[in-house]
Amino acid sequence: MEEKKKKGGLLRDLGVLLIILLTPPVAILLWYTDTYLQGSLRELVHFFSERGFFTGMYAIWAPVFWGSKTAWIILGLFAAIEILLMKLLPGKVVEGPVTPRGYIPRYRNNGFTAFLVSLFLFWLLGFRLGLFRPAMIYDRFGEILGALNIFAWSFTLLLYVKGLCCPTTPDSGSTGSFLFDYYWGTDLYPHILGINVKHFANCRFGMMSWPLLLLAFVDKQHELYGAVSDSMIVSVTLQLIYVGIFFFYESGYFRTMDIQVDRAGYYLIWGVMVWIPSVYTLTGHWLVNHPVTIGPGLSAVLVVAGLLSFWSKTGMNRQRIRVREHDGNYRIWGHPAKIIRAKYTDDHGVERESILLADGWWGIARHFHYVGEILGALCWSLPALFSSIIPYFYVIYLTLLLVHRARRDDKRCRIKYGKYWEEYCSRVPYRILPGVW
Ligand code: NDP
Q1: Of all residues in the chain, what percent carry a pLDDT higher than 90?
Q2: Is the dihedral of CA 188, 210, 316, 382 positive or negative?
């Protein structure tokens, strides 16, 4: 038994090591392929077959590994502005869900205002007053990724140590394995100098960088070709709306797995600080050098389909949150919502009750909202048409992530709610797609 446990721990640590070692080069290679090899994976294979993998990798990564002075200044200014907006903009204080150890996180709900102010400042300082050239961010994106990577590695290490020696909340601890703790984190809700680290890193840094980078990519395409292609306009517009909706419902995000389950380790912190800027923006980055024309018909179809996906996905998240806010007394699609009152015991042995919605979108499949998420991303990738796989990298990754996430969430809920979750599963048997899985 002991032997089996050890082996399981070793395999888990090896898996984690692989993720930590592979994800940074993948982010760098995607940027390099897109910028210097016309987004062609064949060219990339050719590059490595000529130079060898390690020397090739060194040639690509070494010049940007530590970032550059300009890159660090850009990141420092961006982080400082976002912290100021997070702290100073008005907003009601909202509560997140109570943790297993009884902690109730609190947030200032000013995400949407911060989103609008950030876009406005970027436009004013860059496009209007010309204090910086937005396209320069595209030119220096490799250095920015290098700096981001170094920062996220070090910051995660700092959070690991902090979680061990002075955790912010009781929901912290160690598994005894440095590798796994570094990857998964030791603290659930770390605060540093009064700043809620996950709120800042996930929302105000990672998610906020996404629309600003897209605007820089639009500027670069305009600089190169003297115009902005309709494919770029459709793709970027849909993404700006998606991120806008995210910030409009930011308080709902505090109830998702990212915030209430995942600790502040490499998986989350590196993910939001490096993977979001590099991978989530890939379609826009690819379009810079490929000003594809898609015409008004396809443009309209993609915008309408994208908006419908966002609308359905947002409605699904809202149903789940509203039914709990109304203690189950909530109407869905014209009738009283069918719910399960699920009891569970928290880490202090206190019995609590929660509500599982088995109706509306949540009666179709247990994670049907993931379909809306994937279709939305497909709609902003399709303007790139089909000459390269790179603009589809995000939507492919997202599909894999959400399939894995559906399993992870089911496992968590089965442990948390036991027979009540079994009842929900018997009423709603499919995970994501009814009739398929
Ligand atoms: P979910 O919105 O799926 O919420 C999961 C939690 O909701 C569960 O852990 C459980 O928590 C509760 N829950 C589960 N089933 C029910 C039910 N039937 N009724 C009521 N509550 C239920 O969380 P995610 O974090 O996976 O997704 C949040 C949003 O973020 C989604 O829109 C998703 O598409 C999006 N997303 C986007 C990603 C991206 O990279 N673009 C990645 C991941 C998610 P509890 O303990 O409260 O009961």
Answers
A1: 87
A2: negative
> For atom 23 of ligand 1, which residue has the closest CA?
256
Residue type, 211: P
Side chain identity, residue 39: G
- 392/75 Cα distance (integer angstroms): 27
Query: Which distant-in-sequence residues (6+ apart) come within 8 Å of 123 by Cβ?
Result: 215
| Dihedral angle of Cα 29, 33, 36, 42, to the nearest 10 degrees | 130
User: 106 pairs with which residues across the strands?
Assistant: 95
Could you tell which of 246, 257, 259 is best to mutate to test the pocket of ligand 1, judged by most ligand atoms within 8 Å of the CB? 257
State pLDDT tens for residues 124-155: 999 999 999 999 999 999 999 999 999 999 99
Q: Whole-angstrom Cα distance, residue 114 to residue 305?
A: 27
DSSP labels, 258-304 = HHHT--SSHHHHHIIIIIIIIIITHHHHHHHT-----HHHHHHHHHH
